[in-house]
Each structure stands twice: as structure tokens, then as C-alpha cells.
Amino acid sequence: MPNIPVISFVAYSGTGKTTLIEKLVAELKARGLRVAVIKHDAHDFDVDKSGKDTWRFTQAGADVVAIVNATHAAVMENRPVTFEDLVAKITDVDIIITEGWKTGDVPKIALRRAATGNGFPEDLTNVVAFISDTPVESELPRFDFTDVSEIADFICRN
Fold first, then answer.
1. What's the CA gap between 13 and 17, in Å, rounded?
2. pTM of structure
3. Residue ranges of the chain with pLDDT lower than 50?
């Protein structure tokens, strides 16, 4: 993996990971950082539109399909890609934030929201902090969901 710091936000669905990361990205961008986000999806997803050229290339069997214009580019890998390979492809950013990668050897911030009825994800390794709307029995830092600036400070220090 490149020397770009990676931090993963992990929690059960409905905890607020996406909303928190959205606010955190805005905070980090306001500080002048270049940010990448990788979303892990445990379900099947499709980013292409049925009938469009790129979809047709995929249907024809292309292993990789890319589409580019003057302001955006997207590469669709129609094959398994490891976390490490995906991270290695990202360049020219200051930090990579991932959502949902509970396994792997990257620092993790675990989230818990009382209203969901769920605790923290089990069997986590490399947890460096917690975000929770209830107390946490740990010596690790704990933040509230509204502490976006403090979470950004923590990430930038570590």
C-alpha cells in the first residue's frame, strides 16, 4: 500500500457512518486536504446504466471498463479486487477514508448509536477510537457523532 494514511469507520448498518464521513470529508477539505473515500458494500451493486455503452462492454465480457470526460473518470473492475490492490491504485490524496472494512490491518474507528439497538461490531482489531452517543468503557478516545472537528483533529494527528 502507498504511504497514504488509511482510516476505516466501522459499524452496523444504520449507525450513521455515511453521514459522519460526509461531514468529515467536508471538514478535511476545508483544511486543505485531498480526500479519497472507499465504500465497502456487502451486497451486490451496479454503478452502470443498463443499455449504455459501458454497460454493453461489461455485458460483452470486459474485465475492466473505464469512462472519462473532462471532469470525471470511473473505472469499473468486473472482477474481484482486494482491499490492498484498491488502496494501491489511489494516488495524489492526503488520506483515504474507508467505510465498512471491518477486517484488515488498518486503523479503525468503531461507531455505535443507542437507537439502533446494536453494539460495536464484534471481533474488531486495530480500533484506535470510538464514536458513540453513550459512554464507552475504554481508554481509547471517544467522540460524539457531532464532534466532527475533534474527529478530524484526531485523524490528522495519527
1. 8
2. 0.89
3. 1
